[in-house]
Design a protein that fits this description.
The structure is a homodimer. With about 240 residues, the first copy, chain A, is α/β, with parallel strands linked by helices. Chain A is built from 6 helices and 12 strands. The interface of A and B includes residues 215 and 230 of A.
């Protein structure tokens, strides 16, 4: 079957609390009717973005579509990775967010750095959240990538989970070897376009981040972030 | 030093044939003056995109800048990879071309597929070439990524170098293991948004392309192409 023929895949965060029939949001109703061109009676898949996967049967379309949950199951995340990233140039973070979500990254954490600040606005966060939802549908994932607002390195340091694995994208580092397997959270850190300051680098080293070279040339911030995520995505559960 | 303070890096394809003073193209002259904000007397680096790296001293700026070649050396390519790719949706190939060039891919080969054709126009090829030049400057590489016009699978098959290594991005494949080392050409093939047809898949298998799973979810064409390239870029010479 060509990929387009696969059943549609929706993001329905309220899935968990309504086990029988579910009313879809304005956005998912629109997506279902206009993008998927679904019909009443069609079967579609839906996730709550927190591990649940359901088979739905469409009851009605319209401004708010309705569907019957025919089967639902839940699974835990088997692998976890966060990407901390200084600001790249321009709007280059947008496609990065989309690609990280496709690759299965758990959380996107923009970092405020000494040499580059994010243009922080609610509009940016909302746009990233929409991109993460679109990527979730596209890649048929059960977990929605979390979009975190920009924080300083010290604030981010306070969120590091116990036992996590830590890498810093750095052309001066060694090659990373095989990607990590198993459930420990992996954190990949990438500096802004102008690089981390010496103080930030010292702090990252003290936090246990290990320098890792991702390619034999200089990479833009967003390319390094994506290359790290692609490497991580090659690992197995 | 912050990255911006590094000497400017130019693409000067005529470098080889003029060993003394060199006159820069309109585009590089503009880039040097307006983007790099260079001054006469500054030292800059330049490559011909075919392995030569030169240290130049700027003699004069203006519409056609002039520079003196102070040192020049040449090296061979130590690793080679080609990406063959069916058409993704919309203009998603643009940033893919940029990222593949940053990662050091040797040649970008768009594939005409049964389920998707490229909107083939000279304008697209020219835009991709400009993106490849910008990425070459950015990543300070000695080799310009070659932009090939779209061809059919059979035409592409006729270009496969002897002894090359061949992968097909395919969620049903196994994990790829360690990236290849050494000078053999690696070819990564990715289907269009709608996937390869059964006939195309059979042909690729007959050509020795090995299915490789790049992530645990469904990837868009451009994401799969980039993930394959990032994996390849982790290999050593």
């Amino acid at each position: 079957l060509p990929a387009e023929a696969a059943p549609s895949f929706l993001w329905v965060p309220e899935l968990a609390v309504e086990p029988g029939a579910v009313e879809l949001s304005l956005e998912e109703s629109h997506y279902l009717a206009r993008v998927c061109r679904a019909r009443p009676g069609d079967q579609v898949f839906a996730t709550d973005g927190r591990g649940r996967l359901a088979e739905l049967r469409i009851l009605s379309l319209g401004r708010r579509a309705r569907a019957e949950v025919e089967r639902i199951e839940r699974s835990d995340r088997r692998r976890r990775a966060w990407v901390w990233c200084g600001a790249p140039e321009g709007r280059r973070a947008d496609w990065l967010v989309e690609k990280l979500a496709e690759l299965g990254i758990e959380a996107w954490q923009p970092l405020e750095c000494e040499r580059a600040r994010w243009r922080n606005s609610q509009g940016v966060i909302e746009r990233w959240r929409r991109l993460a939802v679109a990527a979730l549908r596209q890649s048929r994932r059960r977990f929605l990538m979390e979009i975190r607002p920009p924080v300083t390195l010290e604030e981010a340091a306070g969120t590091i989970p116990e036992g996590s694995l830590r890498w810093l994208a750095d052309a001066a580092g060694g090659r990373g070897g095989a990607p990590p397997a198993g459930a420990a959270c992996a954190i990949g850190v990438v500096g802004p376009a102008a690089g981390f300051s010496a103080g930030e680098r010292d702090r990252l080293a003290a936090l246990g981040f290990q320098a890792m070279c991702l390619a034999d040339g200089r990479l833009r911030s967003e390319t390094a972030a994506l290359a790290w995520a692609a490497w991580w995505a090659l690992g197995e559960a």
